[in-house]
Amino acid sequence: MLAIDKNYKINELVYESREIIIYRGERLSDSQAVRIELIRTKYLSSDRLLSLQNQFNIMKKLDSKYILKAIGFTSCKNDFVLILEDFSKSTLQDFFRQIDARCLDSENLDNFLRLFLPISIQLAEILSELYTHNIIHRDLKPANFQIDLQTQQIKLTNFGHALLVSEQGQIVTNPTFEGTLAYASPEQTGRMNRGIDYRSDFYSLGITFYELLTGKLPFSSVDPIELIHCHLAKLPISVSTVNPVIPQVLSLIVAKLMAKMLKIGIKVH
Fold first, then answer.
1. Annotated catalytic sites, by residue?
2. Integer Cα distance of 229 and 233 in angstroms
3. Are both 167 and 228 inside the same structural domain?
4. Which domain CATH number covers 239?
5. Could you tell me if 129 and 14 lie in one domain?
6. CATH number, domain containing residue 55
7. Tens-place pLDDT, residues 68-115
8. DSSP string spanning 199-262?
9. Is the pTM above the cut of 0.90?
């Protein structure tokens, strides 16, 4: 097994591709479980390297129970190594796919809400943490939230597209798209004559809530151009229309989060 660093022990190979190798291991000084990502520079563009450095710097800035901890960013021979807290193997996407909100009815709604509501509160608190630290994540989606299956604690990860902005909450120009198109805000697509601010993450949170509550995305097109048009101009079918057993108040919250125009979107104070 490859020796990454004398301070860490590798226990398990998780994933390997041409560009990256992911291990699980532990820090020898305190047996802290870690996730070790070895990035092969031979296949690494300068933009990708900047993204990795940006991810580490922003995650290191955050000290929160809701954010996956960044432990180290170092080199191994000619490659780069990102060392992260190893929190959970499960994502919010995995968790809710097992529940399958498409099967919700009046009989199992209460049990579903007992899971969904505490999780939704954690997601809102995560956005509050980002706002407090002047960070726009730009890639909020169920796959980027890890969940402890025993406690249902949530942690946000994958800050490769995140931005650190001024304390004044400036609007950032966004000439090219970054993130995941299915969850991207209208202004994040780069097709609008305005930049992005914190409210871009609220839109993505709205799509995340929509998917968790209905088991489907608000816009299902696989064509990128059509999907961009949906984000820019179309309103999704409401959550309570997709499934009438979902409380109307949750449907209204999702609609508010997904408001197209900044002036009618969620306000940040």
1. 139
2. 6
3. yes
4. 1.10.510.10
5. no
6. 3.30.200.20
7. 999 988 877 778 888 999 999 899 999 999 998 888 899 999 999 999
8. HHHHHHHHHHHHHHHHSS-S-----HHHHHHHHHHPPPPPHHHH-TTS-HHHHHHHHHHT-SSG
9. no
